[in-house]
Amino acid sequence: MFVCADCIAIFYVNSSDQFVPIAIQLVPGDEETVHTPSGNEYDWLLARMYFRASVRSTHEWIHHYLYTHAVSETFAIATFRNFSRNHPIYKLLRQHVRTAPAINTDARVLLVPHGSLANMSNHLNAPSSVRKRYKTFNIHHLDIPASLKMKGLDDPSLLPNFHYRDDAMEIWGAVRKYVTDVVMHYYTCDADVVGDHELQSWMYDVAHEGIGWQDGNLRGFPDKLTTRDELIRMATIVIFASTAQHAAVNFGQMETYRFIPNAPGSMILPPHKRGEADHKRMMESLPGVVTSSILISFSYALSEYAKDEVFLGDVPDRLFTEPDVISIQQAFKQDLVRLQAKFEKRNESLRYPYTYLLPNKIPISIAI
Ligand SMILES: [Fe+2]
Fold it and tell me: 331 CA to middle of ligand 1, Å?
């Protein structure tokens, strides 16, 4: 049996602009499980391990599987069964969503089921944690600028050195510009959107057969599109979740998780109260060799790029043939090249370069 501490942590930006934890409560309502840096060294160290264990499981099943893999698959199914192959939105989205159903089918056999090694090694059960989080899932979680603002993470002056936010906002802007140019090319006014029956069927399918199929709750997703802006927002969400957001949450797993104490997938003993931790208790709380090996193996496998990986901005299938739209695709590529240089320049001054949103490391779709 693995213990999942329902942790609460308070963070603080210190005078060196570092985002650091200053208090962790391991059991809600139990003040004796509140730990701080000023307490016993092992109490604080072990409390951070419990917190990191919770973050790891939440990351894997919610931020990775639910918010990127499952979202991309939902749009993929609707895209393939509602659009004809010459529809511009089909041409825009196809390359970004086409691989998610296949990898998700594998995931639902190998990783997600109750008895799988990956599921048993993480202390949050995948199906139940996804089901629980899905109750409060909303489209705002996928709209990155809105999500960052909602969480109070959007202001660089209050939270400096948050490189994911800074790079994600830049990539989001480039994707949105690309989508805007394509949409404006094919839809001359909002009435064109309203009168596009394939597009309307696609949105209805996503909302009712995808997002709300089980309980009728559409979770903020529209079931029809009435303006070009709504279409631009939706397509930007699909492409970003299927590319940049997935890259950000997927490819750092080996680097972050290979040293088990840095982010244990599970903890063995119940959370400790103040004064209870020492070296022996810490070692007995961490997962054993077999569980640790499984966790590291999955982190390694999930962090690997395919040998024939295609990256964001490249165009593997020449679906668009109009010169104006090909120019739009080339402009998008140039925007990404510019961002690549900007991020690399920033990284030169960092002790730990942030590389997960370098455009040449963002696969064009979700395949792992
Ligand atoms: Fe993934």
Answer: 28
Is residue 146 within 8 A of residue 139, CB to CB? The reply is: no
User: What pTM did the predictor assign?
Assistant: 0.96
Query: Is residue 119 very low, low, confident or very high in pLDDT (cuts 50, 70, 90)?
Result: confident
Distance 367 CA to ligand 1 centre (A): 7
Q: How many CB atoms lie within 10 A of CB 277?
A: 24
CA distances from 187 to 16, 196, 227 (A): 50, 9, 10
In total, the chain counts a number of residues equal to 368
Residue 258 identity (one-letter amino acid)? R
Of 74, 70, 101, the closest CA to residue 206 belongs to 74
Q: What is the pLDDT of residues 236-264, one digit of tens each?
A: 999 999 999 999 999 999 999 999 999 99
Q: CA 164, 165, 166, 170 torsion: positive or negative? A: positive
Structural domains present in the chain = 59-268+309-361 (1.20.245.10)
Q: How far apart are CA 95 and CA 85, in angstroms?
A: 12
